[in-house]
Amino acid sequence: MMFVRYRLLAQLVKMWKDDEILEKIDRLPIEMHPRKQKPQGRCCIYKERAVTKYKTMAMLGFDMSDEHDENATLASYAQRMLDRENIDPEKSILSVMDEACSSCVKINYEVSNLCRGCAARPCYNNCPKDAISYDKDGKAFIDHDKCISCGKCHQACPYHAIVYMPVPCEEACPVKAISKDEYGVEHIDPEKCIYCGKCLNACPFGAIFDNCAVFDVLKRIREGKKVVAMVAPAVLAQFGKPIEQVFGALKAVGFDDVIEVAYGAEETTRRESAELVEKIEEGAPFMTTSCCPAYVNLARKHIPDLMKYVSSTGSPMHYTAEYAKEKHPEGITVFIAPCASKKAEGREDANVDFVWTFRELDAVINGMEIDVDTCEPFTPSETASKDSYGYAKTLGVFTAVKNKIGDPSLQGTVIADLNKKNIALLRGYAKTGKCPTRMIEVMSCPGGCISGPCACTEGNEAIRQFDAEMKKK
């Protein structure tokens, strides 16, 4: 579903490039779902067209709160996008486009046709709420008004006939920020959400969107304003091309300058290593990193006792943006990242004007029909150490700090996935004030930023690309 979303964005960008967005945008849902095409996952093509309309609105930077007339055309939204100065700063970073939400039924456990009606009835005997009964054929069924979703019947069934049926987005959210309204549509609670983005890829219908500012940046480029791209180190794992070619593609998009965020990581390393030494000398039991905004939001919203252990050092994005504004005082800064949580952090940083994800950049490159292989290579003037590029991968921040301090005996604890188990571990560290080591590196994503929810490449391929580029440093 993420592929479909960014194919849609690429088509919109092509319309933008050809100055045809107002003329052609209303035909887009029809062209994507012609009358003779069989519906894929929806009841009919008309439903699919409606869903595509709302997804197109999201690509233009709108959400459901912007719909005041359900009969409004996409062209009218495109015109509103062209007319606006900025996206509303109060708009949600992550939101559900409710027409696209399939309202997954919240029944955690159900008896399948594998039930053999066995005489021992282990499911019945292990249910603490008498929620299991049997029909006339001896097959089990669950009374969902009584069921408390404890899963004991699921564990006891010798035939694996009782299946677990999660609601994917709710299951993926580690902080229970997603829940249904009275109509069964999912909503994200901004008071709880940490913007980790796990729900983005979990929804099999692609109903969850991160706030999109692609056209707000493209407008400023077209207006002739100086726009500066600040690219996260995880870019080394994204496009499968020499990094100089990727930066050349950014110049072809229209960015005036490209600055690697690894340059800002140099300052983060310097400050964070000094802060760690200072805290150790003061007797602090441990310190955690602060460069992952999803983790910082987790501490703020859900584990406030942990905040005193979180480093006060700014992220590489923060110091890069600070430098970019000094280098280009009139410039508009665009941070290009692997995750949605950086959009939340960017909103809080006065020096960051916009944030794109790698997937959005990829869609822009495709929509503008830029051939990365033929782009003139570009090498940023700023330099950074190999350790600073390592911030993109698990152990990278700790390694950079350890090398800066120069203490080979320094040990660190690594938490590389903000799942429920690791969050419970962090709660324990906050409650007891005890940790096996003096430093904890925390990343929201397994493997680090190279595996971010808005990355173009995932898993072993991301690691392979990253390691290949790191060998050149």
Explain this structure:
It is a single chain. The chain is of the alpha/beta class and 473 residues long. The chain folds into three domains: 2-101 and 181-214, no CATH class; 109-166, Alpha-Beta Plaits (2-Layer Sandwich), CATH 3.30.70.20; 216-470, Rossmann fold, CATH 3.40.50. The protein has 20 helices and 15 strands. The chain has helices at 2-17, 21-24, 28-32, 45-59, 74-83, 122-126, 152-156, 168-172, 198-202, 214-222, 243-253, 262-281, 293-302, 316-327, 341-348, 358-367, 386-389, 396-405, 420-432, 459-470, and strands spanning 94-96, 109-111, 132-134, 140-142, 162-164, 178-180, 186-188, 208-210, 227-231, 257-260, 287-288, 332-337, 354-357, 412-416, 439-443. The strands form six sheets. The protein has a four-stranded parallel beta sheet, with helices on both faces. A three-stranded parallel beta sheet has the order 11-15-14, with no helix packed on it. Strands 1-8 form a two-stranded antiparallel ribbon. Helix 19 links the parallel strand 14 (412-416) and strand 15 (439-443). Helix 12 (262-281) packs across helix 18 (396-405). The chain is globular. The two termini are 35 Å apart. The mean pLDDT is 93.
> Got a strand count?
15
| Helical proportion, percent range | 25-40%
Number of helical regions: 20
Number of domains: 3
What would you call the shape? globular
- Percent strand: 5-15%
Uncertain segments are none
CATH architecture of the largest domain: 3-Layer(aba) Sandwich
Neighbour order of strands in the largest sheet: 10-9-12-13
Q: What is Rg?
A: 25 Å
Task: From the 3D structure, determine the CATH topology of the largest domain.
Answer: Rossmann fold
Measured between the Cα atoms of the first and last residue, the distance is 35 Å
Structural class: alpha/beta
Largest sheet at a glance?
4 strands, parallel
